Amino acid sequence: MYRLAGLSNPRQAQAFIDYMASRNIALSLAPEPEGMFAIWLHDAQDLVEAEAELNLFLANPFDEKYQAASWQVAESRTARFAYRNPSLINMVKQQAGPFTLTILVAALGIAVLWFLGFQQFLFDWLHFPFMDGDQWQVWRFFSHALLHFSVIHVVFNCLWWWILGGQLEQHGSSSKLVQVFLLSALISGFAQFWFVGPNFGGLSGVVYA
């Protein structure tokens, strides 16, 4: 689903949704904070036509064709306004690319295992290299970013990673985000090791890079 627009008047928004239904384009209305109502497009293939029709609607929302469309569908609709909340998974996927989601899932999965009691095992495998031989285990220079030690720690970092990483990947590219992740994890890892020693982890160094 794609968020097409946000309107403050739900009746006008529903009139537009009804009109687009007559053109076989499915839209849904969902309440948002501060009294706004989001119009969600079900099929991204209809985006160009939907945006063009939306511009026409915003220019003249009181055109009779919108009111007529509402009357036509009123009899078949059990409720005057049908609000549909897009699923959380779809909303997360809409705002993130594949690499953002990969790191997000990895960090959350590792956090779950951490809270289930595998702390020592995970730390032994993912900590920043500081013992003899660790420096040859190249993944350690980056894997420390996936370690989190509390619920607040992982939730806060993953939220910022999803927001910032998702924006960078969507407006840039996945390869660009991979480069940013690796470089920032490497630099922040050395910096944290220098100041606090080997007992650190988390995406903080990446999201603040």
TrEMBL record:
Membrane topology, as annotated: Multi-pass membrane protein
Domain annotation Peptidase S54 GlpG peptidase N-terminal: ranges: 1-86
Matches recorded under Pfam families: Rhomboid (PF01694), Rhomboid_N (PF12122)
Superkingdom of this protein's organism: Bacteria
GO molecular function list: serine-type endopeptidase activity
TM regions (residue ranges): 99-121, 141-165, 177-195
Name of the protein in question: GlpG protein
Organism placement in taxonomy: Bacteria, Pseudomonadati, Pseudomonadota, Gammaproteobacteria, Vibrionales
